[in-house]
Amino acid sequence: MEFDMDRNGSSGISSLTERPYFYDVALCDKLTKEIFYDKLGYKMISLPLFNKQPEELKTVMDQWLYLLKHLSTMDRLPSFLDKRIFGLIFEIGEIGKLTEELMSYEASLKHKRDAESVFNSAKKSGEALGHAKGLAEGKAKGLAEGKAKGLAEGERKKALETAKAFKEMGLPIADIAKGTGLSVEEVEKL
């Protein structure tokens, strides 16, 4: 946090701890004052209250807090901060000090990447929609063709059954073929 939560000193936290800038907060029931759920809490740091000098930094946390508090005013990474750990964050902080031209370039790159992302998303969406539409059309066409084929097979089977019955009744083969739509050869094979 970039502000002091306890400006008027009402909580008394600063007098209770050697780290008045660090808050370890847990949720509790207001009536019973019991911790509500011990696995959920907040760790907050008030950077304005962190006032250690470089020679007072003893822990890595102290070094991080010092860097976060003073990063905007640093021109280079101080020697008392380990370059392996803090070098990358310092480089990231340097981006905040970019010139207007470089910031404009970065913004144009971001705009280009955003446009490409939108285009690729639209393309994927269109492909998925086209695939679904093609699948539905193909399914409908297949069903129609299957239905037509089934009807044709059913009509042929019915014609064969009728021709067989007429042949058993002794009707002339030419008349049976004419009445059922079958060829004379088909009627003879029955």
UniProtKB/TrEMBL annotation:
Taxonomic superkingdom: Bacteria
Organism per entry: Sphingobacterium paramultivorum
Stored PANTHER family: PD-(D_E)XK NUCLEASE FAMILY TRANSPOSASE
Name under which the protein is recorded: PD-(D/E)XK nuclease family transposase
Pfam families in the record: PDDEXK_2 (PF12784)
